[in-house]
Amino acid sequence: MIKQRSGKIINISSTAGSKGNPHQLHYSAAKAGVISLTNNLAYMWAKHNINVNCILPGLIATEELKGYGIIPKDIDDEGKAVPRLEQPPVPEDVADLTLFLGSPASDALTGELYPIRAWLKSERFWQ
Predict the structure, then answer these.
(1) Containing structural domain, residue 23
(2) DSSP annotation string for 29-65
């Protein structure tokens, strides 16, 4: 990338790396290291036209987690659809952001952290 004077690096960390996670000191510390690596490489390689960004997924609604009953349903107790921003992200949300960061549309972005956790801002989550 340095030789060709362009490139895109997309790191995957976790919201645990920026906010911590109870009982997972080792995991949070490792993910914080990825965030620090992202920031430092962005500074070092901007002069080479290399973008370095980091995606921070929170809890993602995978089939495995749905099986454990951790993921809330997309239909509430009254049978109404739960608004999208009040639902946990799905793997496609991470994929879509990754595609965007790898595209020319993100050429002006480097050293940024992109948490994927909108549902944690929802009142429904905290009730």
Answers:
(1) 7-59+88-118
(2) HHHHHHHHHHHHHHHHHGGGTEEEEEEEE-S---HHH
Which residues does the annotation mark as catalytic? 27
By three-state DSSP, how is residue 28 classified? Answer: helix
| Contact (CB, 8 A) for 14 and 54 | no
Q: Is residue 105 part of a domain?
A: yes
Q: In whole angstroms, what is the distance from residue 96 CA to residue 127 CA?
A: 29
- To the nearest whole number, what is the mean pLDDT of the chain? 88
Q: Is residue 123 part of a domain?
A: no
pLDDT of residue 4: 96
Mean pLDDT to the nearest integer, 112-116:
95
pTM of the model: 0.85
Count of the separate structural domains present in the chain: 1
What pLDDT score was predicted for residue 64? Answer: 80
Would you say 120 and 58 are in contact if contact means Cβ atoms under 8 Å apart? yes
Residues 86 and 124 sit within 8 Å (Cβ to Cβ): yes
For 2, the token pair is 């340095």
pLDDT score, position 120: 67
Output the domain CATH number for residue 20: 3.40.50.720
